[in-house]
Amino acid sequence: MGDLTRGESAGIRAGLLISTAVAAVMVHLVFARAAAPKTEPAGEKAPTYLSPIAMVADSAGKTIYIAEATAGQVAVFDVATRKVTANIAVGPPVSGVAISTDRTKLYITAGAAKGHLCIVDIKSKKVLARIPVGHTPMSPVVTRNGDTVYVCNRFDNTIGVVDIAEGRLANTIG
Questions:
Q1: Is 90:104 a contact under the CB 8 Å cutoff?
Q2: What is the DSSP string of 129-152?
Q3: Model confidence over 41-92: pLDDT tens digits?
Q4: Distance between CA atoms of 124 and 127, rounded to whole angstroms?
Q5: Cα dihedral angle (127, 132, 133, 138), rounded to 10 degrees?
Q6: Phi/psi at 38 (5° precision)
Q7: What is the distance between the alpha carbons of residues 129 and 88, in angstroms, rounded to a whole number?
Q8: How far apart are CA 74 and CA 97, in angstroms?
Q9: DSSP 15-84
């Protein structure tokens, strides 16, 4: 076994950081669920289910954005403190999350029959736009140049092509 190059060593460190972050997120989710009551005694609130479904990390690996389907939100998870620092409400069911190439926006898929792609400013955590895309959108993917987001429309059996600059569904494939 030879010596690792600087790039290989950095890659391994980044992988370990992300693995640690994912483990921390799982711990958060287990404790959040465990803290919820198991039964609903008369007059008490039902358990809160978050239903994590997708996540994406920032480029530094310091923050993980967790799409929570049932909660209708994206949790902002700080890896260092292992705590959720904010929640971004977009409405249920949230089904996917991606980060823009310039790292300033989140692209969040949400909704069912009239699904949409939400564009959220990371700094303010405000929804900037809701673009209708199709039935049960999920798995947003940002192109390398950041101009386009592709979205799977699960029950339309199509792929939505969103033009980010124009803020609209430019095409549907399928």
A1: no
A2: EEEEEESSEEEEEE-TTSSEEEEE
A3: 556 665 578 999 999 999 999 999 999 999 999 999 999 999 999 999 998 8
A4: 9
A5: 40
A6: -85, -25
A7: 13
A8: 8
A9: HHHHHHHHHHHHHHHHHHHHHS-SS--TTSPPPP---EEEEEE-TTSSEEEEEETTTTEEEEEETTTTEE
